Amino acid sequence: MAEDLTITTSTDKEEQYRSLIPQITALIEGEPDMVANLANICAALKEQFKWLWVGFYLVKGEELVLGPFQGPVACTRIAKGKGVCGTAWQQEKTLIVPDVDEFPGHIACSSASRSEIVVPLFYNGEVVGVLDADSENPTQFDEVDARWLEQVVKLVNFNE
Asked: What dihedral angle (degrees, nearest 10) is formed by the CA atoms of 93, 21, 17, 65?
């Protein structure tokens, strides 16, 4: 397991992700504890991209429950179909929200959040959680983030 992170200073998002994915892989490789791995994934993403908030919500019954995250305090429980996270879970697809004020039913865990991306986490064909990232900047997230973050969630090991 690697315990150091090399931050890429390039302004090219593709280059940042290309550098970060192998580092995340090394961080979680050989560690069977899913919570520890989710925590390190959050830390790596937060360090590289300086987003306002990044974390995981995990499906427990009919709710998403807050898991490992980096950033300000967050909503603890989100119902299926509610907010961006609950909608991504319900629709089983990545959602990019350029302006959270334009998203019907947006749940404002932080008033500083201006844009958001939510990527479902699948196990055996079922959504078992979501990766959520929020930015203080409008239009922060795009298809580049979606493509790479979908690769990040595929790294999660569900042995635990």
From this structure: 40
Dihedrals phi, psi of 35, to nearest 5 degrees? -60, -45
User: Could you read off the pLDDT of 66-87 as tens digits, one per residue?
Assistant: 999 999 999 999 999 999 999 9
Report the predicted TM-score, pTM, of the whole model to 2 decimal places.
Answer: 0.92
Residues with Cβ within 8 Å of residue 66, at least 6 apart in sequence: 55, 57, 74, 75, 76, 77
In the beta sheet, which residues pair with residue 134? 53, 116
Residue 8 lies in a domain: no
Residue 59 sits in a domain whose CATH number is 3.30.450.40
Which residues form the domain of 31?
A: 13-154
| 151/145 Cα distance (integer angstroms) | 10
